[in-house]
Structures are given as C-alpha cells and as structure tokens.
Amino acid sequence: MTQSNQQPISNLHIAAFDPMPTPEAIQAQLPLSAKAEATVSQGRAALINILDHKDPRPFVVVGPCSIHDPVAGLDYARRLKALADDVSDALMIVMRVYFEKPRTTVGWKGYINDPDMDDSFKVDAGMAKAREFLLAVNELGLPAGTEALDPISPQYLGDLIAWNAIGARTTESQTHREMSSGLSTPVGFKNGTNGDLTIAINAILSASRPHSFLGINSDGRVAIVRTKGNPYGHIVLRGGDGRPNYDTVSVTLAENAMTKAKLLPNVIVDCSHANSNKNPELQPLVMADVIGQIVAGNKNITGLMIESNLIAGNQPILADRSQMTYGCSVTDGCVNWDTTEQMIREAADRLRPILANRLG
Ligand SMILES: O=C[C@H](O)[C@H](O)COP(=O)(O)O
Ligand SMILES: C=C(OP(=O)(O)O)C(=O)O
C-alpha cells in the first residue's frame, strides 16, 4: 500500500461520528399505540377538510415556543385537551410541539439536539424522549404540530405528527422543500424573516411536485428518497423585518399572490414572531384582529398560531435548574395559560354564529 505523507484532506472540521439508533429501533422501543394512531389520522383528516374548505372551523396551532421540560409540557397538554374539547364546535386545536429550534446565530437548538440543556448534545436520547412526549400528547387525543427542521427527524417522529411547519429561515431551502414534498401531513410554509411572501409561494409550488433526493429509510440506510408531492402546502404569515403582516391588506396581498400562482389561497396567521414584534403580550390583539377578519367574511384564513405556555414570558437556561420557573419558555416569550384560554374561548364565541356562512 502506498504511504502518503500528506495531511488528511477529508472531515477536517469533524470531531466525531457517533452512532445513532435507527428510526426502526427507536420506534420499536416506543411503538405507535392504537389511540395515538387514531389521533394522528383524525387530526390530519380534520386539517385536510379545513384546507379543502369542507370544514368551516379555523385550526389553531397553540403551545410552547419549544418543549424543554416534558412534565410541564404534559401539564400544558392536559389543559389544552380539555379546552380543545370545549371549543371543538368552533375551532380545531393542534398542540404546538416544537423540538427543533432554528437559531438566528447560535443558542439552544431544542430538546432533540440537547435534551439536558447542558451542551452534552445527547441527540440519541433527545430523539427517544421527543417520541415519548409526542406519544403521550397523542394518547390524550390531542394532535401535534411541529417544525420539520432536520430532514432526517421525520423518519423518527413523522407517524406522530398531524401538521408540519417549515420555518422562516428554511422556507427557501431546497432540502426543506424536497422533504416537505414527502411529508405525510399538511405543511405550513412561513414567509421569510424579511417578510418575503414569494419564497413561501415558491416553496408550496416546489413541495407540491415529486422530488428525488438523498435521505435515510426506516432502517437507517442512506436512500434515494422519491416523493409523490404534497398537495397540502399553505402559507403562514409571521410578519418580517419588524413589520406585521396579519392586517387585512397584507392578508389580501397574500391571497392574491397565491391565486396568481394557481394555489388555493389558504392563509394561516402566526400571532407571534414579527406579527407581535416578539412581544407576547401583543398576541391577543393579533388574534382578535384576525378573528375579526374571519367574522367580517374572510373565508381563506384557515388557521392561526399562538406561542403559549403555562407562565408568561421567557427565561434564560440556568445551570441550577431548581432556579428555573416551571412552565416558562426558554426560547421566545409566550402568553400564559389564562390568556391562552381567554384568547381561544373568545375566538370560539365570535366564530360560532358565523361558521355556517363560511362554507361555499
Ligand atoms: O421561535 C423561535 C425563534 O424565533 C427562532 O428560533 C429564532 O430565535 P433566535 O433569534 O433567538 O435565535
Ligand atoms: C422559529 C419559528 O418561527 P419562524 O420560523 O417564523 O421564525 C417558530 O415558530 O418557532
């Protein structure tokens, strides 16, 4: 064998390749139960009916900015399930179960990446814990929505998800459009962080088509993934560049741009992020305005998103966990539980009298 005196030229910036259990192995450890399967199927079917305008209720993706404490997360889920049942004649509730955080620069990247929040990055444990949490939420009868950020994660968790989002930072990414074309759920594409709608519309068009790309199969083998295309892409308005885009004019511009692209003009409004200038206290105002647009006759606003937790605001991650507040976000600020309940009950009360007029 020829000896080379050259320095290695591959993987120069890689510290390690650590083994990761396959999707099949983690699913065997935490199998889909019959109850969870029914929740996922019914949740997806309800969302499809809403996006097809066969069900007049808007859907609401509501929950923490990120899950970091499964005990507090399930406490939240139990309260949300009771509320979801109470308003189910007017709103379809999906719990926001976000495990993967896209950061503007750096920061904690979520429960899968670093479940212990101490830079130990136990991704293998994080994936199993995320699956365990999703199973528990679905077993309550509450469907879950998440951001699909890592293109491999859906092979581990996809059977427990009813709605996926592609975030503002990745809507323009070909990898995420390809992945979305194969996801088994409706997919909401956020407008860009600068407020650009075109990238979301292009993403919906791209994801609606078949793609072939590199991925893994359930056995963890590298595979050429060949997708069929996803017909249930829709836009999520989240504001951008410090300006909101939930007002009547912005919603109309989004509807017109989608119609021009020959897409169903389904619009979801994210009450958080740039739509509330990252001030969670403004989310109720955004929601009230959007519900007002629906009551006034808008038929294309088919959903809303709220960042909500048990306790309002957010907090830093502290080394001494005992000093951290139970049920308070470690990423973006959220509205508290009482405000969430009030926002949703008020919206349901305003929608009930007009829902019959939304069809047709
Ligand atoms: O919703 C979450 C955040 O807005 C997103 O992850 C970006 O966060 P960052 O700007 O704090 O990194
Ligand atoms: C990161 C998020 O939103 P956006 O992509 O709109 O910034 C989010 O909803 O957690």
UniProtKB/TrEMBL annotation:
The record's Gene Ontology biological-process terms are: amino acid biosynthetic process; aromatic amino acid family biosynthetic process; chorismate biosynthetic process
Q: GO MF annotations for this entry?
A: 3-deoxy-7-phosphoheptulonate synthase activity; identical protein binding
Q: What is its EC number?
A: 2.5.1.54
Q: Which reaction does it catalyse?
A: D-erythrose 4-phosphate + phosphoenolpyruvate + H2O = 7-phospho-2-dehydro-3-deoxy-D-arabino-heptonate + phosphate
Tell me the superkingdom of the source: Bacteria
Report any Pfam family annotated for this entry. DAHP_synth_1
User: Which pathway is this protein engaged in?
Assistant: Metabolic intermediate biosynthesis; chorismate biosynthesis; chorismate from D-erythrose 4-phosphate and phosphoenolpyruvate: step 1/7
> What's this protein's function?
Stereospecific condensation of phosphoenolpyruvate (PEP) and D-erythrose-4-phosphate (E4P) giving rise to 3-deoxy-D-arabino-heptulosonate-7-phosphate (DAHP).
Q: Which family does it belong to?
A: Belongs to the class-I DAHP synthase family.
Q: What is this protein called?
A: Phospho-2-dehydro-3-deoxyheptonate aldolase
